[in-house]
């Protein structure tokens, strides 16, 4: 069975976007963080996005600026298979992207039962909430950024039942980010 990983940027107070929906605060690059991002981008994975995250990603990663600033990440983002969950979009035009208009929970349950690379969801708070609530996320890789936002949205809005997690490792970076790896505990 394929694994589903949620790779998410959050503030110390637990928000993935601020009160205005912005997450520019999560983009702190330095050599160490850039090397980490590049190594992540090189692994074989199928990427999952909701509409809002897709629209943010497609505006940057296929551009010459992305290839100049982060060539390894741009290559991984552009060449990986991508699935966008949206009932509002009529088409997607980013390379290797499939538009999925059906229920994310049912579609991901089906995808997990098929062979293929690991599934990685990035951003996409509403989709994370739905998939976490359905017990489909196997691992959370939470990048805790050294900032307090005060207000915003959490990744788990709408989750009704407790989800027990087990911390499997952590990694601190010089830019203040800490990645905490959690697996579902049951």
Walk me through the topology.
Layout: E1 4-11, E2 17-18, H1 31-41, E3 45-50, H2 51-60, H3 64-69, H4 71-79, E4 82-85, E5 97-100, H5 104-113, E6 118-122, H6 125-133, E7 139-145, E8 152-153, E9 165-172, E10 178-184
Helix pairs in contact: 1-4
Walk me through this protein's architecture.
- There is one protein chain.
- This protein is an alpha/beta fold and 186 residues long.
- The protein has one domain (4-184): Dihydrofolate Reductase, subunit A (3-Layer(aba) Sandwich).
- It has six helices and ten strands.
- The protein has helices spanning 31-41, 51-60, 64-69, 71-79, 104-113, 125-133; strands at residues 4-11, 17-18, 45-50, 82-85, 97-100, 118-122, 139-145, 152-153, 165-172, 178-184.
- An eight-stranded mixed sheet has the order 5-4-3-6-1-7-10-9. Strands 2-8 form a two-stranded antiparallel sheet.
- Strand 9 (165-172) and strand 10 form a beta hairpin.
- The longest helix is centred in the first third of the chain and has 11 residues, at 31-41.
- The protein is globular and about 40 Å long.
- 26% of the residues are buried.
């Amino acid at each position: 069975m394929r694994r589903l990983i949620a790779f998410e940027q959050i503030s110390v107070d637990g928000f993935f976007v601020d009160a205005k929906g912005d997450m520019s605060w999560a983009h702190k690059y330095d050599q160490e963080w850039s090397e980490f991002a590049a190594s992540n981008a090189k692994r074989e994975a199928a990427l999952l996005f909701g509409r809002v995250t897709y629209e943010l990603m497609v505006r940057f990663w296929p551009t010459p600026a992305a290839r100049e600033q982060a060539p390894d990440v741009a290559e991984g983002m552009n060449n990986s298979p991508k699935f966008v969950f949206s009932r509002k979009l009529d088409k997607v035009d980013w390379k290797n992207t499939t538009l999925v208009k059906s229920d994310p929970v049912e579609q991901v349950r089906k995808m997990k039962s098929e062979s293929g690379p690991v599934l990685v969801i990035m951003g996409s708070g509403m989709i994370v909430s739905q998939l976490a609530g359905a017990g489909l996320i196997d691992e959370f890789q939470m990048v805790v950024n050294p900032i307090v936002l005060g207000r915003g949205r959490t990744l788990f809005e709408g989750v009704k039942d407790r989800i027990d997690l087990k911390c499997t490792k952590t990694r601190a970076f010089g830019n203040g980010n800490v990645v905490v790896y959690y697996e579902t505990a049951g």
